[in-house]
Amino acid sequence: MMRMPLLLRFRLQLLFQEWMRLFVLEAVFRSYFQVYSNNCDRYLDHPPERKKIGSKWLRSKQ
What we know:
Blueprint: H1 3-45, H2 50-61
């Protein structure tokens, strides 16, 4: 009599964990792609001058 509720509770916990994992993954990927698309739009509007950035970075490293 006691085994059935325990098994049911265990299955519900597993299901809940899977749903939480899916929601977290969806939120992470959605925010990542939102940032990625925003960066793409910014890059297309104002493309950076890579040589200046690279030489500044190299000078600061040395």
